[in-house]
Design goal:
two-stranded parallel ribbon; single chain; about 60% helix; about 0% strand; mainly alpha
Length: about 180
């Protein structure tokens, strides 16, 4: 968790495959702790074709059975089926917008929101931007993308800087957002 916080969390992501990875992992996190998902990240990477949305969208019943037997990941049939469906939706968004990056960053006006929370207890579980993202993803057929999951995705992928103001990472992340 410390390495993830210190090196990855909140860094603005514009690579579509990495955005798919974050969306997939955050969807699997629903109802679980992020620590569990991080511990299983390598197994998720292997199980879900290195987070390749084209390959994941093509998964059939054989792959679903294998995933349900894979003790290295979270074995939840609904989340597995949602991930396959979400991969197809992800590809459709890429076709429509040219990239998932272009689509997803519109919810924050193309630049990370720089929050300045004084304590972790001040960080919300969701925001209006996350609710808009959730509604639009659901409208496009995505599932396991409620507003709390969307906000966690936004935090991880750097659409918002939610490092508390006193954290050494806050100014570092903020400087990554300056053109």
């Amino acid at each position: 968790m410390i390495v993830y916080h210190d090196e990855e969390w909140g860094v603005p992501v514009h690579d579509d495959r990495t955005l798919f990875e974050f969306l997939l992992l955050d969807s699997f996190q629903a109802g679980l702790s992020w620590a569990v998902i991080l511990r299983k990240r390598a197994a998720f990477r292997k199980a879900f074709a290195d987070f390749d949305p084209v390959r994941v969208a093509g998964f059939g019943e054989g792959e679903v059975r294998a995933l349900l037997e894979n003790a290295g990941i979270v074995r939840n049939r609904q989340k597995i089926l949602a991930t396959i469906s979400n991969a197809a939706g992800f590809l459709e968004v890429q076709r429509e917008f040219g990239s998932f990056d272009r689509f997803i960053w519109q919810f924050v006006g193309g630049a990370p929101i720089q929050n300045r929370w004084s304590a972790l207890k001040d960080v919300p579980a969701s925001t209006e931007e996350a609710e808009q993202m959730s509604r639009e993803l659901k409208r496009r057929g995505f599932s396991f993308v409620g507003s709390t999951i969307c906000y966690a995705f936004m935090q991880g992928a750097g659409l918002v800087n939610d490092h508390v103001a006193g954290c050494f990472r806050h100014p570092e992340i903020e400087s990554l957002s300056v053109d």
